[in-house]
């Protein structure tokens, strides 16, 4: 399960520390999770996740642009066979960054590549550009 | 800021997240190709530092995906279609900007409840899940309604998710979306 790969639950004995965005204090805890996931263990993991979740997103960009960007990121991870968790995390960073910078957007054309274009770009580069370089 | 700069920021965020999550992260060059060469590797690296400072290097934020995984684990979900449909709905929710109104744990609970409703038609929010999360069907009701309504209105524009979940390996989970957008009854879901 992907959840087991989450940095919160790494099975090393070292302490995991990270920065809490809201309270700007450093939280530390000891990893104490074992491989057999009984109900108590799941509940404990849930509580840690719940305590650390960011309540709501606040990005100020319009719905159409957001949909296009998320769609593009899912397209990329499908082409390169990456985990979907990558997109969720990327969009969290994206939201925090945008809400911090408080930008005003000027509409322009985004070069959103679909699967075929990404593959074509990659094939073109691998077959021709490497030889030229 | 131009919209094309947003694309560069999104690509940089993906680059950062991939380093944390994937066994083999994206290379700068792969992301350069994905943006049709509109931005350079140097620009990605420049924004990487800016974003890291902006998020205070707090990279391990719990996401909707984490909550969906833990809920499915707690309900010991064995039905593969239900498993994939939950993830599919969670991806829809991310794309629909539901995160503006609800927390990740609420959205994840709604995605799991809706998928169980689509597959089993009752017991969509079992007692185990209610005990674990502290939520009930009624408390997550507004999120469920928002999610199912949005599915009906905009299902035609989500190309990537449609392609990802219209595969045999993912039990064609997308085929159940149409049902959910027209027949959600919270009373029945209890």
Overview of the molecule:
The complex is a heterodimer of chains A (133) and B (190). Chain A has 133 residues and is mainly alpha-helical. Chain A folds into two domains: 53 residues, no CATH class; 62 residues, no CATH class. Chain B folds into two domains: 52 residues; 126 residues, Cyclin A, domain 1. Chain B contains eleven helices and no strands. The mean pLDDT of chain B is 85. The relative contact order of chain B is 0.11. Classes of the chains: A mainly alpha (133), B mainly alpha (190). Chains A and B meet through α1, α2, α3 and α4 of A and α1, α2, α3, α4 and α5 of B.
Number of helices of chain A: 4
Q: Report the count of strand segments of chain A.
A: 2
Strand order of the largest sheet of chain A: 1-2
Which stretches of chain A are low in confidence, meaning pLDDT under 50 for 5 or more residues running? 10-35
Largest pleated sheet of chain A: 2 strands, antiparallel
Count of helical segments of chain B? 11
CATH architecture of the largest domain in chain B: Orthogonal Bundle
Largest sheet of chain B, described in full? none
- DSSP helix fraction of chain A: 40-55%
Rg of chain A, rounded, reads 20 Å
Largest interface: A-B, 82 and 70 residues
């Amino acid at each position: 399960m992907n959840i087991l790969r989450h940095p919160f639950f790494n099975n090393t004995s070292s302490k995991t520390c990270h920065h809490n965005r809201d309270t700007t204090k450093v939280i530390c805890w000891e990893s104490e999770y074992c491989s057999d996931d009984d109900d108590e263990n799941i509940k404990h993991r849930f509580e840690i996740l719940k305590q650390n979740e960011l309540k709501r997103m606040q990005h100020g960009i319009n719905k159409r642009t957001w949909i296009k960007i998320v769609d593009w990121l899912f397209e990329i991870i499908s082409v390169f066979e990456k985990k979907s968790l990558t997109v969720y995390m990327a969009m969290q960073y994206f939201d925090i960054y945008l809400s911090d910078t408080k930008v005003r957007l000027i509409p322009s054309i985004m070069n959103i590549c679909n699967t075929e274009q990404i593959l074509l770009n990659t094939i073109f580069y691998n077959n021709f550009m490497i030889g030229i370089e | 800021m131009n919209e094309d700069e947003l694309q560069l920021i999104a690509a940089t965020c993906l680059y950062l997240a991939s380093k944390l999550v994937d066994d083999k992260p994206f290379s700068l060059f792969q992301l350069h190709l994905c943006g049709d060469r509109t931005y350079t590797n140097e620009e990605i690296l420049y924004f990487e530092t800016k974003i890291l400072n902006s998020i205070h290097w707090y990279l391990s934020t719990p996401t909707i995906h984490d909550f969906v995984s833990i809920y499915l684990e707690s309900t010991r979900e064995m039905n593969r279609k239900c498993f994939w449909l939950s993830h599919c709905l969670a991806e829809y929710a991310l794309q629909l900007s539901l995160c503006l109104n609800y927390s990740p744990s609420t959205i994840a609970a709604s995605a799991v409840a809706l998928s169980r409703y689509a597959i089993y038609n009752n017991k969509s929010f079992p007692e185990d899940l209610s005990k674990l999360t502290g939520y009930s069907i009624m408390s997550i009701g507004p999120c469920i309604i928002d999610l199912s309504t949005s599915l009906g209105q905009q299902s035609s524009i989500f190309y990537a998710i449609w392609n990802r979940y219209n595969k045999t390996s993912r039990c064609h989970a997308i085929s159940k979306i149409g049902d959910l957008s027209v027949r959600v009854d919270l009373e029945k879901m209890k």
